[in-house]
Design goal:
six-stranded antiparallel sheet; Spore Coat Polysaccharide Biosynthesis Protein SpsA, Chain A; five-stranded mixed barrel; alpha/beta; Jelly Rolls; 24% helix
Protein backbone atom coordinates (compact mmCIF):
# COMPACT_ATOMS: atom_id res chain seq x y z
CA UNK A 1 0.00 0.00 0.00
CA UNK A 2 2.83 2.45 0.85
CA UNK A 3 4.47 1.74 -2.51
CA UNK A 4 1.18 2.44 -4.29
CA UNK A 5 0.77 5.79 -2.60
CA UNK A 6 4.36 6.76 -3.38
CA UNK A 7 3.59 6.13 -7.06
CA UNK A 8 0.47 8.30 -6.75
CA UNK A 9 2.46 11.06 -5.06
CA UNK A 10 5.08 10.99 -7.81
CA UNK A 11 2.42 11.14 -10.51
CA UNK A 12 0.51 14.11 -9.16
CA UNK A 13 3.66 16.11 -8.31
CA UNK A 14 5.17 15.56 -11.76
CA UNK A 15 4.68 17.78 -14.77
CA UNK A 16 3.30 14.79 -16.62
CA UNK A 17 1.85 16.23 -19.82
CA UNK A 18 3.56 14.54 -22.73
CA UNK A 19 6.25 13.02 -20.49
CA UNK A 20 4.72 10.52 -18.14
CA UNK A 21 3.59 7.88 -20.64
CA UNK A 22 5.88 6.94 -23.51
CA UNK A 23 3.23 5.31 -25.70
CA UNK A 24 0.29 7.61 -25.12
CA UNK A 25 -1.87 5.90 -27.71
CA UNK A 26 -2.13 2.83 -25.49
CA UNK A 27 -3.44 4.42 -22.32
CA UNK A 28 -5.92 1.97 -20.79
CA UNK A 29 -9.41 3.34 -20.19
CA UNK A 30 -11.18 2.54 -16.92
CA UNK A 31 -14.89 3.33 -16.76
CA UNK A 32 -15.88 4.83 -13.41
CA UNK A 33 -19.60 4.27 -12.91
CA UNK A 34 -21.28 6.44 -10.27
CA UNK A 35 -24.17 4.40 -8.86
CA UNK A 36 -25.28 6.61 -5.98
CA UNK A 37 -28.57 8.46 -5.70
CA UNK A 38 -31.99 7.50 -4.39
CA UNK A 39 -33.99 8.15 -7.55
CA UNK A 40 -36.93 9.76 -5.74
CA UNK A 41 -38.19 11.51 -8.89
CA UNK A 42 -39.27 8.17 -10.36
CA UNK A 43 -41.27 7.02 -7.32
CA UNK A 44 -43.05 4.62 -6.82
CA UNK A 45 -40.96 2.41 -9.12
CA UNK A 46 -37.68 3.88 -7.90
CA UNK A 47 -37.13 4.07 -4.14
CA UNK A 48 -34.26 4.32 -1.71
CA UNK A 49 -34.13 0.53 -1.38
CA UNK A 50 -34.00 0.04 -5.19
CA UNK A 51 -33.21 3.28 -7.10
CA UNK A 52 -33.81 3.95 -10.79
CA UNK A 53 -30.30 3.00 -11.97
CA UNK A 54 -31.09 -0.64 -11.19
CA UNK A 55 -34.44 -0.60 -13.02
CA UNK A 56 -35.30 -1.52 -16.59
CA UNK A 57 -37.19 1.40 -18.13
CA UNK A 58 -36.87 0.38 -21.78
CA UNK A 59 -39.50 -1.52 -23.73
CA UNK A 60 -36.77 -2.88 -26.02
CA UNK A 61 -34.83 -4.95 -23.47
CA UNK A 62 -34.79 -5.99 -19.82
CA UNK A 63 -31.40 -4.46 -19.04
CA UNK A 64 -31.23 -1.96 -16.21
CA UNK A 65 -29.91 1.56 -16.75
CA UNK A 66 -26.67 0.48 -15.01
CA UNK A 67 -26.26 -2.54 -17.28
CA UNK A 68 -27.03 -0.42 -20.35
CA UNK A 69 -24.33 2.05 -19.26
CA UNK A 70 -21.78 -0.79 -19.40
CA UNK A 71 -23.14 -2.16 -22.69
CA UNK A 72 -22.84 1.27 -24.28
CA UNK A 73 -19.04 1.15 -24.01
CA UNK A 74 -18.65 -1.91 -26.26
CA UNK A 75 -16.25 -0.98 -29.03
CA UNK A 76 -14.18 1.49 -27.01
CA UNK A 77 -10.43 0.95 -27.44
CA UNK A 78 -8.16 -0.20 -24.58
CA UNK A 79 -11.14 -0.68 -22.28
CA UNK A 80 -10.55 -2.25 -18.86
CA UNK A 81 -13.14 -3.52 -16.39
CA UNK A 82 -15.05 -0.79 -14.55
CA UNK A 83 -14.78 0.69 -11.09
CA UNK A 84 -18.24 1.09 -9.57
CA UNK A 85 -18.99 3.21 -6.54
CA UNK A 86 -22.33 2.67 -4.83
CA UNK A 87 -24.16 2.83 -1.54
CA UNK A 88 -23.38 -0.05 0.81
CA UNK A 89 -27.09 -0.91 0.93
CA UNK A 90 -27.10 -1.70 -2.82
CA UNK A 91 -23.90 -3.76 -3.02
CA UNK A 92 -25.52 -7.09 -3.79
CA UNK A 93 -27.81 -5.54 -6.41
CA UNK A 94 -24.77 -4.10 -8.19
CA UNK A 95 -22.80 -7.35 -7.98
CA UNK A 96 -25.72 -9.41 -9.28
CA UNK A 97 -26.41 -7.04 -12.17
CA UNK A 98 -22.75 -7.19 -13.19
CA UNK A 99 -22.85 -11.01 -13.09
CA UNK A 100 -25.93 -10.99 -15.31
CA UNK A 101 -23.99 -9.24 -18.08
CA UNK A 102 -20.73 -11.18 -17.50
CA UNK A 103 -18.82 -8.14 -16.25
CA UNK A 104 -16.22 -8.50 -13.49
CA UNK A 105 -15.61 -5.06 -11.96
CA UNK A 106 -12.10 -3.94 -11.21
CA UNK A 107 -13.55 -2.79 -7.89
CA UNK A 108 -16.89 -2.06 -6.23
CA UNK A 109 -16.35 0.75 -3.73
CA UNK A 110 -18.97 0.96 -0.99
CA UNK A 111 -19.93 4.37 0.35
CA UNK A 112 -21.23 4.12 3.93
CA UNK A 113 -23.56 7.04 3.10
CA UNK A 114 -24.14 9.33 0.14
CA UNK A 115 -21.69 12.06 -0.83
CA UNK A 116 -21.35 14.23 -3.91
CA UNK A 117 -19.24 13.50 -7.00
CA UNK A 118 -15.89 14.97 -5.90
CA UNK A 119 -15.20 12.30 -3.22
CA UNK A 120 -16.47 9.50 -5.49
CA UNK A 121 -14.23 10.52 -8.39
CA UNK A 122 -11.22 11.11 -6.13
CA UNK A 123 -11.57 7.68 -4.53
CA UNK A 124 -11.95 6.05 -7.94
CA UNK A 125 -8.84 7.78 -9.28
CA UNK A 126 -6.81 6.64 -6.27
CA UNK A 127 -8.10 3.10 -6.73
CA UNK A 128 -7.33 3.15 -10.47
CA UNK A 129 -3.72 4.09 -9.81
CA UNK A 130 -3.28 0.98 -7.65
CA UNK A 131 -3.77 -1.16 -10.75
CA UNK A 132 -2.12 0.85 -13.53
CA UNK A 133 0.55 3.52 -13.94
CA UNK A 134 -1.76 6.23 -15.24
CA UNK A 135 -5.07 5.10 -16.77
CA UNK A 136 -7.62 7.38 -18.35
CA UNK A 137 -10.87 7.52 -16.40
CA UNK A 138 -14.20 7.71 -18.19
CA UNK A 139 -16.64 8.92 -15.51
CA UNK A 140 -20.27 8.06 -16.19
CA UNK A 141 -23.54 8.28 -14.30
CA UNK A 142 -25.37 4.97 -14.14
CA UNK A 143 -28.81 6.39 -14.92
CA UNK A 144 -28.50 8.14 -18.28
CA UNK A 145 -30.34 7.32 -21.49
CA UNK A 146 -28.35 7.72 -24.75
CA UNK A 147 -30.01 6.63 -27.96
CA UNK A 148 -27.22 7.29 -30.49
CA UNK A 149 -24.54 4.90 -29.25
CA UNK A 150 -22.40 5.18 -32.40
CA UNK A 151 -22.19 8.97 -32.14
CA UNK A 152 -21.57 8.69 -28.40
CA UNK A 153 -18.51 6.49 -28.95
CA UNK A 154 -17.26 8.87 -31.63
CA UNK A 155 -17.40 11.79 -29.19
CA UNK A 156 -15.81 9.71 -26.40
CA UNK A 157 -12.91 8.76 -28.69
CA UNK A 158 -12.41 12.46 -29.40
CA UNK A 159 -12.41 13.13 -25.68
CA UNK A 160 -9.71 10.50 -25.19
CA UNK A 161 -7.43 12.44 -27.56
CA UNK A 162 -7.75 15.55 -25.39
CA UNK A 163 -7.32 13.56 -22.15
CA UNK A 164 -4.08 12.01 -23.39
CA UNK A 165 -2.67 15.54 -23.66
CA UNK A 166 -3.57 16.31 -20.05
CA UNK A 167 -6.93 18.03 -20.43
CA UNK A 168 -9.86 17.57 -18.07
CA UNK A 169 -12.75 16.90 -20.43
CA UNK A 170 -16.42 17.31 -19.68
CA UNK A 171 -19.26 16.84 -22.13
CA UNK A 172 -21.95 19.42 -22.82
CA UNK A 173 -25.22 18.20 -24.27
CA UNK A 174 -26.57 20.33 -27.11
CA UNK A 175 -29.80 21.67 -25.56
CA UNK A 176 -33.15 21.06 -27.25
CA UNK A 177 -35.26 23.20 -24.90
CA UNK A 178 -34.84 25.73 -22.05
CA UNK A 179 -34.76 23.05 -19.36
CA UNK A 180 -34.46 24.45 -15.83
CA UNK A 181 -33.63 21.08 -14.30
CA UNK A 182 -30.09 20.95 -15.76
CA UNK A 183 -26.92 22.89 -15.12
CA UNK A 184 -25.37 24.73 -18.06
CA UNK A 185 -21.78 25.11 -19.31
CA UNK A 186 -20.68 28.14 -21.30
CA UNK A 187 -17.81 27.57 -23.72
CA UNK A 188 -15.41 30.29 -24.86
CA UNK A 189 -17.08 30.37 -28.31
CA UNK A 190 -20.23 28.95 -29.98
CA UNK A 191 -20.37 25.35 -31.19
CA UNK A 192 -21.04 24.85 -34.89
CA UNK A 193 -23.54 22.22 -36.01
CA UNK A 194 -21.96 18.80 -36.40
CA UNK A 195 -18.48 19.72 -35.15
CA UNK A 196 -16.77 17.77 -32.37
CA UNK A 197 -14.18 20.26 -31.16
CA UNK A 198 -13.28 20.87 -27.54
CA UNK A 199 -13.48 24.43 -26.26
CA UNK A 200 -12.26 26.03 -23.07
CA UNK A 201 -14.84 26.40 -20.33
CA UNK A 202 -15.86 29.95 -19.52
CA UNK A 203 -18.28 29.25 -16.66
CA UNK A 204 -20.83 26.89 -15.10
CA UNK A 205 -24.39 27.89 -14.21
CA UNK A 206 -26.47 25.70 -11.91
CA UNK A 207 -30.17 25.20 -12.84
CA UNK A 208 -31.23 28.67 -14.06
CA UNK A 209 -34.76 30.07 -14.08
CA UNK A 210 -36.83 29.72 -17.25
CA UNK A 211 -36.06 33.20 -18.62
CA UNK A 212 -32.31 32.67 -18.20
CA UNK A 213 -32.49 29.17 -19.67
CA UNK A 214 -34.31 30.57 -22.71
CA UNK A 215 -31.44 33.03 -23.28
CA UNK A 216 -28.88 30.22 -22.87
CA UNK A 217 -30.54 28.02 -25.48
CA UNK A 218 -30.37 30.85 -28.05
CA UNK A 219 -26.61 31.15 -27.43
CA UNK A 220 -24.77 28.28 -29.17
CA UNK A 221 -21.92 28.48 -26.65
CA UNK A 222 -24.16 27.03 -23.91
CA UNK A 223 -24.71 23.31 -23.37
CA UNK A 224 -26.36 21.19 -20.70
CA UNK A 225 -23.99 19.77 -18.09
CA UNK A 226 -24.08 15.98 -18.63
CA UNK A 227 -21.86 15.00 -15.68
CA UNK A 228 -19.71 12.84 -17.99
CA UNK A 229 -15.92 13.30 -17.77
CA UNK A 230 -12.67 11.97 -19.25
CA UNK A 231 -9.23 12.62 -17.77
CA UNK A 232 -6.09 10.86 -16.66
CA UNK A 233 -6.18 9.66 -13.08
CA UNK A 234 -3.04 11.64 -12.28
CA UNK A 235 -4.38 14.79 -13.95
CA UNK A 236 -7.59 14.94 -11.94
CA UNK A 237 -5.81 14.07 -8.68
CA UNK A 238 -3.27 16.84 -9.24
CA UNK A 239 -6.05 19.40 -9.63
CA UNK A 240 -8.05 18.02 -6.68
CA UNK A 241 -4.97 18.25 -4.49
CA UNK A 242 -4.44 21.82 -5.65
CA UNK A 243 -8.00 23.16 -5.43
CA UNK A 244 -9.61 20.91 -2.80
CA UNK A 245 -6.81 19.55 -0.61
CA UNK A 246 -9.20 18.37 2.11
CA UNK A 247 -11.01 16.19 -0.41
CA UNK A 248 -7.72 14.68 -1.54
CA UNK A 249 -6.42 14.05 1.96
CA UNK A 250 -9.69 12.63 3.29
CA UNK A 251 -10.09 10.32 0.29
CA UNK A 252 -6.50 9.14 0.56
CA UNK A 253 -7.07 8.26 4.22
CA UNK A 254 -10.39 6.61 3.31
CA UNK A 255 -8.73 4.31 0.76
CA UNK A 256 -5.85 3.49 3.11
CA UNK A 257 -8.24 2.47 5.90
CA UNK A 258 -10.73 0.65 3.66
CA UNK A 259 -11.27 -3.11 3.98
CA UNK A 260 -11.90 -5.79 1.39
CA UNK A 261 -15.11 -7.77 1.88
CA UNK A 262 -15.74 -10.51 -0.70
CA UNK A 263 -15.82 -8.66 -4.05
CA UNK A 264 -16.35 -5.28 -2.39
CA UNK A 265 -14.11 -2.62 -0.85
CA UNK A 266 -15.70 -1.04 2.23
CA UNK A 267 -14.68 2.59 2.63
CA UNK A 268 -13.75 3.69 6.14
CA UNK A 269 -16.72 5.43 7.73
CA UNK A 270 -14.90 8.06 9.80
CA UNK A 271 -12.42 9.06 7.12
CA UNK A 272 -15.14 9.21 4.48
CA UNK A 273 -17.28 11.37 6.76
CA UNK A 274 -14.56 14.02 6.74
CA UNK A 275 -14.72 14.35 2.93
CA UNK A 276 -16.33 17.62 1.80
CA UNK A 277 -19.75 16.99 0.27
CA UNK A 278 -19.11 18.86 -2.99
CA UNK A 279 -19.38 18.15 -6.70
CA UNK A 280 -16.37 17.74 -8.96
CA UNK A 281 -17.55 20.86 -10.81
CA UNK A 282 -17.30 23.00 -7.67
CA UNK A 283 -14.14 21.32 -6.39
CA UNK A 284 -12.16 21.43 -9.64
CA UNK A 285 -13.85 22.16 -12.96
CA UNK A 286 -14.89 25.73 -12.07
CA UNK A 287 -11.30 26.55 -11.03
CA UNK A 288 -8.93 24.61 -13.28
CA UNK A 289 -7.34 26.03 -16.43
CA UNK A 290 -7.18 22.54 -17.97
CA UNK A 291 -10.92 22.06 -18.41
CA UNK A 292 -12.52 21.79 -21.83
CA UNK A 293 -16.06 20.99 -22.96
CA UNK A 294 -16.93 18.75 -25.91
CA UNK A 295 -20.37 18.94 -27.55
CA UNK A 296 -22.54 15.86 -27.11
CA UNK A 297 -25.48 15.52 -29.50
CA UNK A 298 -26.61 11.91 -28.96
CA UNK A 299 -30.28 12.06 -27.85
CA UNK A 300 -29.23 12.21 -24.19
CA UNK A 301 -31.49 12.28 -21.13
CA UNK A 302 -30.77 11.92 -17.42
CA UNK A 303 -34.24 10.36 -16.94
CA UNK A 304 -34.97 12.94 -14.26
CA UNK A 305 -38.77 12.70 -14.27
CA UNK A 306 -41.61 10.50 -15.45
CA UNK A 307 -42.19 13.00 -18.24
CA UNK A 308 -38.59 12.40 -19.38
CA UNK A 309 -39.21 8.64 -19.26
CA UNK A 310 -42.28 9.13 -21.48
CA UNK A 311 -40.28 11.29 -23.90
CA UNK A 312 -37.59 8.62 -24.34
CA UNK A 313 -40.02 5.69 -24.59
CA UNK A 314 -41.44 4.07 -27.73
CA UNK A 315 -45.07 5.14 -28.02
CA UNK A 316 -48.06 3.96 -30.03
CA UNK A 317 -50.01 5.96 -32.65
CA UNK A 318 -51.94 7.71 -29.86
CA UNK A 319 -48.62 8.76 -28.28
CA UNK A 320 -49.15 6.41 -25.33
CA UNK A 321 -46.53 4.20 -23.69
CA UNK A 322 -47.96 1.01 -22.22
CA UNK A 323 -46.23 -1.64 -20.14
CA UNK A 324 -47.98 -4.43 -18.30
CA UNK A 325 -51.72 -5.14 -18.28
CA UNK A 326 -53.15 -2.00 -19.87
CA UNK A 327 -56.46 -1.44 -21.70
CA UNK A 328 -57.18 2.05 -23.07
CA UNK A 329 -60.08 3.77 -24.74
CA UNK A 330 -59.95 7.32 -26.15
CA UNK A 331 -56.61 7.99 -24.40
CA UNK A 332 -53.56 9.86 -25.70
CA UNK A 333 -50.18 11.29 -24.65
CA UNK A 334 -49.99 9.10 -21.55
CA UNK A 335 -47.46 6.87 -19.80
CA UNK A 336 -49.07 3.83 -18.18
CA UNK A 337 -47.12 1.10 -16.42
CA UNK A 338 -48.56 -1.80 -14.47
CA UNK A 339 -46.36 -4.10 -12.42
CA UNK A 340 -49.16 -6.45 -11.31
CA UNK A 341 -52.73 -5.24 -11.62
CA UNK A 342 -54.87 -4.38 -14.64
CA UNK A 343 -55.11 -0.68 -15.50
CA UNK A 344 -58.07 0.50 -17.57
CA UNK A 345 -58.00 4.09 -18.87
CA UNK A 346 -60.93 5.90 -20.50
CA UNK A 347 -60.73 9.43 -21.88
CA UNK A 348 -57.30 10.17 -20.42
CA UNK A 349 -54.80 12.70 -21.70
CA UNK A 350 -51.31 13.81 -20.59
CA UNK A 351 -51.22 11.55 -17.53
CA UNK A 352 -48.57 9.43 -15.84
CA UNK A 353 -49.96 6.29 -14.17
CA UNK A 354 -47.51 3.91 -12.47
CA UNK A 355 -48.77 0.94 -10.45
CA UNK A 356 -46.72 -1.23 -8.11
CA UNK A 357 -48.00 -3.82 -5.64
CA UNK A 358 -48.10 -1.28 -2.80
CA UNK A 359 -48.51 2.17 -4.37
CA UNK A 360 -50.02 3.97 -7.37
CA UNK A 361 -48.86 7.27 -8.84
CA UNK A 362 -51.31 9.34 -10.92
CA UNK A 363 -49.88 12.66 -12.12
CA UNK A 364 -50.32 15.28 -14.79
CA UNK A 365 -47.44 14.68 -17.17
CA UNK A 366 -46.26 18.27 -16.75
CA UNK A 367 -46.23 18.07 -12.94
CA UNK A 368 -43.95 15.06 -12.42
CA UNK A 369 -41.02 17.17 -11.18
CA UNK A 370 -43.03 17.46 -7.94
CA UNK A 371 -42.86 13.71 -7.26
CA UNK A 372 -39.66 14.17 -5.24
CA UNK A 373 -41.54 16.60 -2.97
CA UNK A 374 -44.21 13.96 -2.34
CA UNK A 375 -41.51 11.42 -1.44
CA UNK A 376 -40.10 13.93 1.06
CA UNK A 377 -43.55 14.22 2.66
CA UNK A 378 -43.88 10.43 2.82
CA UNK A 379 -40.52 10.24 4.56
CA UNK A 380 -41.44 12.97 7.06
CA UNK A 381 -44.66 11.11 7.89
CA UNK A 382 -42.72 7.86 8.25
CA UNK A 383 -44.79 6.14 5.56
CA UNK A 384 -42.66 3.12 4.53
CA UNK A 385 -43.85 3.09 0.90
CA UNK A 386 -41.87 6.30 0.38
CA UNK A 387 -38.54 4.59 1.02
CA UNK A 388 -38.78 0.83 0.61
CA UNK A 389 -40.29 -1.62 -1.83
CA UNK A 390 -42.32 -4.57 -0.63
CA UNK A 391 -39.84 -6.66 -2.66
CA UNK A 392 -36.42 -6.62 -0.96
CA UNK A 393 -33.36 -7.97 -2.77
CA UNK A 394 -30.73 -10.02 -1.01
CA UNK A 395 -27.54 -11.73 -2.27
CA UNK A 396 -29.33 -15.10 -2.21
CA UNK A 397 -32.44 -13.84 -4.03
CA UNK A 398 -35.34 -11.76 -2.71
CA UNK A 399 -38.36 -11.74 -0.44
CA UNK A 400 -41.65 -9.96 -0.95
CA UNK A 401 -44.15 -8.93 1.73
CA UNK A 402 -47.63 -10.05 0.69
CA UNK A 403 -49.75 -9.45 3.81
CA UNK A 404 -48.67 -7.74 7.04
CA UNK A 405 -50.60 -7.39 10.30
CA UNK A 406 -49.50 -6.47 13.83
CA UNK A 407 -48.69 -10.03 15.00
CA UNK A 408 -48.34 -11.97 11.75
CA UNK A 409 -47.21 -11.52 8.17
CA UNK A 410 -46.88 -13.54 4.99
CA UNK A 411 -43.85 -13.36 2.72
CA UNK A 412 -42.87 -14.91 -0.59
CA UNK A 413 -39.19 -15.98 -0.57
CA UNK A 414 -37.23 -16.70 -3.75
CA UNK A 415 -33.81 -18.39 -3.34
CA UNK A 416 -31.50 -18.70 -6.34
CA UNK A 417 -30.07 -22.14 -7.22
CA UNK A 418 -27.04 -23.02 -5.09
CA UNK A 419 -27.59 -20.16 -2.63
CA UNK A 420 -28.40 -20.25 1.07
CA UNK A 421 -29.57 -17.88 3.77
CA UNK A 422 -27.56 -17.31 6.94
CA UNK A 423 -27.69 -19.65 9.92
CA UNK A 424 -29.88 -17.54 12.20
CA UNK A 425 -32.48 -17.36 14.95
CA UNK A 426 -35.24 -14.98 16.08
CA UNK A 427 -36.10 -13.92 19.61
CA UNK A 428 -39.69 -12.84 18.97
CA UNK A 429 -41.20 -14.81 16.11
CA UNK A 430 -41.81 -18.32 14.85
CA UNK A 431 -41.92 -19.23 11.15
CA UNK A 432 -43.81 -21.71 9.02
CA UNK A 433 -42.35 -22.51 5.57
CA UNK A 434 -44.35 -24.03 2.70
CA UNK A 435 -42.51 -25.02 -0.50
CA UNK A 436 -44.47 -24.03 -3.61
CA UNK A 437 -41.71 -24.50 -6.21
CA UNK A 438 -38.32 -26.23 -6.25
CA UNK A 439 -36.46 -28.10 -3.52
CA UNK A 440 -35.57 -26.76 -0.08
CA UNK A 441 -32.80 -27.90 2.22
CA UNK A 442 -33.79 -27.01 5.77
CA UNK A 443 -31.58 -27.02 8.85
CA UNK A 444 -33.28 -26.63 12.26
CA UNK A 445 -31.09 -27.07 15.35
CA UNK A 446 -28.63 -29.28 13.37
CA UNK A 447 -31.45 -31.48 12.01
CA UNK A 448 -31.34 -31.43 8.21
CA UNK A 449 -34.26 -32.31 5.93
CA UNK A 450 -35.12 -31.88 2.26
CA UNK A 451 -38.58 -30.59 1.35
CA UNK A 452 -40.29 -30.76 -2.04
CA UNK A 453 -43.31 -28.94 -3.41
CA UNK A 454 -46.36 -28.85 -1.09
CA UNK A 455 -44.27 -29.92 1.93
CA UNK A 456 -43.80 -27.66 4.93
CA UNK A 457 -41.89 -27.21 8.19
CA UNK A 458 -42.14 -25.17 11.41
CA UNK A 459 -39.36 -23.13 13.08
CA UNK A 460 -40.05 -22.36 16.78
CA UNK A 461 -39.04 -19.09 18.46
CA UNK A 462 -35.33 -19.18 19.35
CA UNK A 463 -34.42 -22.15 17.11
CA UNK A 464 -31.27 -21.93 14.98
CA UNK A 465 -32.23 -22.49 11.36
CA UNK A 466 -31.07 -22.12 7.78
CA UNK A 467 -32.72 -22.38 4.35
CA UNK A 468 -30.86 -23.26 1.14
CA UNK A 469 -31.60 -24.22 -2.44
CA UNK A 470 -29.71 -27.37 -3.54
CA UNK A 471 -31.60 -27.55 -6.84
CA UNK A 472 -31.11 -26.15 -10.34
CA UNK A 473 -34.26 -24.01 -10.44
CA UNK A 474 -35.31 -21.12 -8.16
CA UNK A 475 -36.78 -22.15 -4.82
CA UNK A 476 -40.06 -20.43 -3.99
CA UNK A 477 -41.52 -20.73 -0.50
CA UNK A 478 -44.30 -19.07 1.44
CA UNK A 479 -43.20 -17.93 4.89
CA UNK A 480 -45.77 -17.21 7.59
CA UNK A 481 -44.32 -15.29 10.55
CA UNK A 482 -46.09 -15.07 13.90
CA UNK A 483 -44.99 -13.24 17.02
CA UNK A 484 -44.92 -10.12 19.14
CA UNK A 485 -42.31 -8.40 16.95
CA UNK A 486 -41.74 -9.02 13.22
CA UNK A 487 -39.00 -6.50 12.36
CA UNK A 488 -36.06 -7.47 10.15
CA UNK A 489 -33.67 -6.49 12.92
CA UNK A 490 -34.84 -9.50 14.97
CA UNK A 491 -32.17 -11.67 13.33
CA UNK A 492 -29.16 -13.12 15.14
CA UNK A 493 -26.71 -14.47 12.53
CA UNK A 494 -24.24 -17.23 13.43
CA UNK A 495 -22.87 -17.98 9.96
CA UNK A 496 -23.25 -16.08 6.71
CA UNK A 497 -21.74 -16.60 3.24
CA UNK A 498 -22.00 -12.90 2.42
CA UNK A 499 -20.14 -11.33 5.32
CA UNK A 500 -23.26 -9.89 6.96
CA UNK A 501 -23.44 -9.38 10.71
CA UNK A 502 -26.43 -8.48 12.86
Amino acid sequence: MKKTFQIIQNLINYDYIGKLVINMSNNPVIPVILCGGSGTRLWPLSRKSFPKQYLSLSSLNQRSLLQTTIDRLTGLCNLLNPILICNEEHRFIVAEQMREIDTKPLSILLEPFGKNTAPAITLSALKALENDNDPILLVLSSDHEIKDKEKFLEVIHKGLDYAKKGALVTFGVIPTNPNTGYGYIKAESPFLDGEIIGKKIKRFTEKPDYKTALEFVKDKSFTWNSGIFIFKASAILKEIKSFSPQTFESCQETIQKSKLDLEFQRLDNNAFNSCPNISIDVAVMEKTKKGIVLPLDVSWSDIGSWEAVWETSQRDKENNYKRGKIILENTKNCYLRSEKRLIVGIGLENLIVVETNDAILISDKNQTQKVKDIVKILKEKNIPEGQSHSKIFRPWGYYESVVEESRWQLKLINVKPGEELSLQMHHHRSEHWIVVKGTAKVEIESNISVLCENQSTYIPVGAKHRLSNPGKIPLLIIEIQNGAYLGEDDIVRFEDNYGRSN
